[in-house]
User: What shape does this take?
Amino acid sequence: MALWLTGDSAADALLEHDGFALLVAMLLDQQVPMERAFSAPSTLKARLGGRLDPAAIAAADPEELAAAFSAKPALHRFPRSMAQRVQALARAVCDRHGGDAASIWTTAADGRELVARLRGLPGFGQQKAQILLALLGKRLQVQPPGWERAAGPYGAPGSFVSVADVDSPEALERVREHKRSLKAASRSLASLGGAGGRPPGLRVPARRGRGAP
Assistant: This one.
């Protein structure tokens, strides 16, 4: 099942066939539109001479890598800090997984192990790890035993709650509408608390991460 994340078939194909590109995209998917985050690996590859190699990025001069991120159009809202994070990610992939990013999920015994492996990567918390697992399972048919349960709410079939559920422009809009409704509900509950906080017995839902549009 082909990915539909960027609106650019070549950029989507890179994510589908290059595990490190997919990790980089997930890492960058915060505080920028989804399409920008997920197209960034393709742009970075071009700026690095046509290769997106974890070992080369791990060994790159930090300033040169930051320049590749900062060149216009910048790859992220915070290009220098994200360049540092991507370099840390590349080093982790090389040190822990022999430079083979896809082996993180192709050799996982089950969904729980895969989430644990992803959480061990720089920049990946529980939510981002679960969203990536859901994306792998729903869009790329990487489905280790127990993957739906390990992915939490993001693994639910027929949902529209994260980037894992995006397979068309219509699906993207449904995911964005879900995010808008969550933010609106959170603001509404927060306003009920006034200056002194929320009313007793009301809990403001935990903020969703930025692993989805």
About this structure: The two ends are 20 Å apart (CA to CA). Residues 93 and 107 are 14 Å apart (CA to CA).
